[in-house]
């Protein structure tokens, strides 16, 4: 079975994808990428592109390098391994077995992504692009069908139809309360107030939780597209992403993504030729765990001490705010 | 607070330095409009420029935003990121989250404390280092972790922690 899998080498085109999430970056994956680029050039392989991606979610195996299309998954890669990966795998078609993932139970070397137990049972929705696309290139996101949902919403649906579709989908908040997202959007749409704001809560502070970080670092445009659609549904023209300052890489990639989305006119005035206007700001947290709570978060955005207040009134109804908890997987 | 082995705010500066500081502050403020919600971004930028929030500067920010000084001070003391005394150039953050704790984060912290001679929240007198703890940096697979400035170092041992600190000396 292994032999068959490894025998995909007919057209010769390959992508070598180096993980550059926070985990792999801290184990020198940027240097690994430079080394691979250097080796590919040295070997004169013009049909091979070395690129980087966001997090694969398997950081303990990092730094991770994936060779596509066959999905060969290299673990614990070192800078010194670049020569062997290029010479043996990319030139001669013999993947480097010593860098394969090893099953912790059987000790068997497993060559591809798809065959690793950790990934086998996963169906990725929110994280579908993480580890596959370059998060700093909007074209990659568009090529996977990105911003198509936005186009459809703006050209074919009213805000009310969007809300009813979200209700039908059964989407709920993932912050713990499981509040139906469509209902929250409707509250906000129907609340009085001239100016409404869309807030994306990325103040992820619970120890051991890093799904927001992975999404923002690995596929920032998916967050932005979702934000624009939700803003259209509730009638907001301005949005905030509140991200904790402990995530410098996530903030950097979001900034890049927002600039690109503005250039392509997915953000700004008359988005995609519609009447809808929307801009996004990034607010960096200043180190307060409690700011993940929505009323505290809004106090912080307004420049005050991030102290929660009691509810009701709920922000979605009283202040024209709408919070997206990003945990809506 | 009168511990001579940690950094303190001297407050009174020579006239000349005071002017340089004010000029820098005015440059920062020139990109803001004077709205209340700009307080936190201004404090963040000031802290980045000065390394901490000097009291006279906070008073000037209060004037600029037409806020009571107590409000500016209140925000400055609320958020962990803000420092009211000078802080070291290299910020060492040792993770004290659950995953790091289980894998010996406390030992790493003790090693760093021993190495630098300061406790979390303090800076060395030469203002080379300041030490902080953080609840989680979301890289639990690499536990125990520490972050120096913006660089994450994973799978720390007491030996590796000492090596990392040496690396940053004088940089």
Task: Describe the protein's architecture and organization.
Chain A is of the alpha/beta class. Chain A has helices at 2-6, 22-25, 29-42, 82-91, 117-120, 138-143, 148-156, 159-169, 181-190, 211-218, 220-234, 248-263, 294-301, 315-318, and strands at residues 14-19, 48-53, 65-68, 72-74, 101-102, 109-110, 197-202, 238-243, 279-284, 321-325. Chain A has a four-stranded mixed sheet, with helices on one face. A four-stranded parallel sheet of chain A has the order 9-8-7-10, with helices on both faces. In chain A, strands 5-6 form a two-stranded antiparallel ribbon. In chain A, helix 3 (29-42) crosses helix 4, helix 7 runs parallel beside helix 11 and helix 10 (211-218) packs across helix 11. Chain A is elongated, with a radius of gyration of 22 Å. Chain B has seven helices and four strands. Chain B has helices spanning 15-29, 39-50, 55-65, 69-78, 98-102, 105-116, 158-168; strands at residues 90-95, 129-134, 146-148, 151-153. In chain B, helix 1 (15-29) crosses helix 2 and helix 6 (105-116) crosses helix 7. Chain B is elongated. Chain A binds chain B through residues 22-23, 25-27, 58-60, 62, 204-210, 213, 245-248, 283-289, 300-307, and chain B through 35-41, 43-44, 71, 74-75, 78-82, 93, 97-99, 134-142, 145, 147, 150-154.
């Amino acid at each position: 079975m292994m032999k068959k899998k490894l025998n995909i080498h007919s057209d010769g085109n390959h992508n070598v994808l180096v993980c550059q999430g926070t985990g792999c970056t801290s184990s020198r994956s940027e240097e690994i990428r430079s080394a691979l680029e250097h080796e590919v050039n040295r070997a004169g392989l013009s049909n091979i592109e070395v690129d980087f991606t966001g997090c694969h979610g398997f950081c303990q195996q990092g730094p991770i390098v994936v060779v596509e299309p066959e999905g060969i998954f290299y673990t614990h890669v070192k800078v010194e391994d670049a020569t062997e990966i290029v010479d043996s795998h990319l030139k001669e078609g013999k993947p480097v077995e010593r860098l394969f993932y090893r099953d912790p139970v059987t000790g068997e070397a497993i060559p591809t992504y798809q065959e690793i137990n950790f990934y086998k049972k996963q169906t990725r929705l929110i994280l579908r692009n993480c580890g596959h696309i370059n998060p700093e290139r909007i074209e990659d996101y568009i090529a996977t069908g990105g911003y198509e949902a936005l186009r459809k919403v703006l050209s074919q649906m009213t805000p009310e139809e969007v809300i009813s579709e979200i209700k039908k989908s059964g989407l709920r908040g993932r912050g713990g309360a499981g509040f139906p997202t469509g209902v929250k959007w409707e509250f906000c749409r129907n609340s009085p107030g001239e100016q409404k704001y869309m807030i994306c809560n990325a103040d992820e502070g619970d120890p051991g939780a890093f799904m927001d970080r992975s999404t923002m670092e690995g596929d920032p445009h998916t967050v932005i597209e979702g934000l624009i659609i939700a803003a259209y549904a509730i009638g907001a023209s301005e949005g905030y992403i509140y991200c904790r300052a402990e995530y410098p890489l996530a903030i950097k990639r979001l900034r890049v993504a927002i600039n690109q989305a503005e250039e392509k006119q997915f953000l700004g005035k008359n988005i995609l030729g519609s009447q809808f206007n929307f801009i996004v700001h990034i607010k960096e947290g200043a180190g307060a765990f409690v700011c993940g709570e929505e009323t505290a978060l809004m106090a912080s955005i307004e420049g005050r001490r991030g102290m929660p207040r009691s509810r009701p009134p709920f922000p979605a109804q009283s202040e024209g705010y709408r919070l997206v908890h990003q945990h809506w997987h | 607070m009168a511990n001579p082995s940690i950094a303190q705010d001297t407050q009174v500066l020579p006239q000349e330095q005071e002017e340089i500081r004010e000029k820098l502050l005015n440059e920062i403020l020139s990109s803001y409009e004077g709205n209340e919600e700009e307080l936190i971004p201004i404090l963040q930028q000031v802290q980045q420029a000065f390394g901490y929030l000097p009291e006279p500067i906070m008073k000037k920010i209060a004037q600029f935003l037409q806020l009571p000084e107590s409000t500016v001070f209140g925000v400055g003391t609320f958020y962990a990121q803000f420092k009211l005394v000078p802080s070291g150039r290299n910020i060492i953050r040792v993770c004290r989250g659950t995953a790091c704790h289980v894998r010996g984060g406390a030992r790493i912290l003790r090693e760093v404390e021993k190495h630098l001679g300061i406790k979390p929240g303090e800076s060395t007198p030469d203002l080379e280092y300041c030490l902080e703890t953080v609840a989680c940096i979301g890289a639990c697979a690499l536990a125990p972790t520490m972050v120096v400035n913006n660089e994450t170092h994973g799978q720390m041992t007491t030996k590796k922690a000492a090596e990392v600190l040496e690396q940053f000396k004088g940089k």
